[in-house]
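Cast an eye over this sequence plus tokens and explain the fold to me:
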Amino acid sequence: MINYLIKQGKIIPLLFFVPVTIAGLLVPGYDMIKQQGSEITLTTYKTAILILESGALLSGLSGILLALGIMLKYKRFYLSSVILIVFSMSMISNGLFPMGSPMHGFYGIGLSLMLLPFISCYELKNEILRKTFFKISIISGFVMFIYFWSTIVGLDPHDYQGLTQRIAAIFMYGWIAYLAYELEKSVDV
């Protein structure tokens, strides 16, 4: 059972990308290159909003299940797990509140995600011995940092905010899935 909590973490990218893509296709005039996914919540297209919100809720729930699986299986790596839970709660908040509400993203607490790859490198240094994990983690962490920083300070190019969000999401959700993959492969302690 515990291994399934970790294994299911590999589908997190699908839980984000499939709903945001389908929802975007359902909104006339929505531009996936120019507009962020959350902008769909500002439209009047209820089906698209429901699909988008469902994806946010499911990806958040999946992240929480992964974090619980990590804590239950290893009885350590608590900081990584807590940060993953915090980020996942912000995703659930994205599914419950529309863009523009301070609760959308849970007051920005999802920014904590950019710390997760670095903290996981430290916490997992004796568990995952493949150097590839650490290289991918460091690159992903820096991409997350650059994306969040550029968004906050207004350097995210306006006409490409949808594209930059999706590129960053590849690193965010892809890294979480990769973490689940690596932990699934690691031996029980």
User: Anything to note?
Assistant: DSSP finds seven helices and no strands in the chain. The helical segments are 2-7, 12-26, 46-74, 78-96, 116-123, 131-152, 161-185. The chain has one domain: 2-185.
